[in-house]
Amino acid sequence: MAITPVVNAIRVLEKMVPEGELLFISAHHSGQHSGVLKSGGLNMRIKDFVSWVNREAATHNLASQFVPDDPHGPLQVSRFRRTLAWHIARRPGGLVALAIQYGHMRTVLDARTSSRYGARSRGGIHTVLDVETALAADTAARLRDRLAAGERLSGPAARRALTAAAQAPRFEGRIVPRTFVHKARAYLARDGIVLYDNPEALMICAFKHDVAMCEPDPGATAPRQYDCRPGCANTVRTDDHALLLRERADELDQFADRLPPPLARRLRTNASRLRATADTHDSTPPQTAEAPR
Ligand code: SF4
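A: This is the predicted complex of the input protein with iron/sulfur cluster.
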């Protein structure tokens, strides 16, 4: 499991190297005869890439696309690890993906699958992830943007989601001191108004522990999104989700056309259920915010 930009990058590499070869095979990328590119070679390519981006930005007068000098030193592969991990960890099931891609990160899984943010005893990337997750709050910020653009919300937790969107800080990117961790934990512990995007389930989870159907551990401050269940009272959907529900229903019907009757029936039933959910969304009147409880 990986996020779309990572998959796209892998697909590009697959086209660049002969079929069946390692993606970073030296013979193809650098003309050397054995092994794969080492970090020195990769770092040089990153440097060349930044120079190319800046040259193109200057040529096309795109000041906003310029890659500035980094006060922490040159961009190198060792620094991408956290960037990738941050993006992966924030997807549903992302922690499992992290554990697969970064096999040694057992501590991340230990700490996060149980969702006991306060119980953590070891520093490291999981602390950084918490801080950045809390800072970004981008599910709520994106929701606020969608609402501003006129989107409607549906689902039992829609009013809580509106409140969360109204309260969300805008993430602009900043470096925070280690002491920010406890603020991040407090932010994530606001039961009922922290929003978790769940694109696989085509919904947003406004996590409230008492009503969660995914059976979070006692005291958990995050849902077990990989075990998200239909009918949960924490569900929220936007117009976008309703559209995607219909698209997925159409896909299921297409699959069903090619399957034996018993399986086809099951897919068509699922497709009808998805359309019914989309219909319910479309018929939901606009919601107004409520104070958090
Ligand atoms: S079951 Fe409920 S609480 Fe759990 S992830 Fe799904 S919507 Fe959220």
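Confidence is low (pLDDT under 50) at residues 102-124, 288-293. DSSP finds twelve helices and four strands in the chain.
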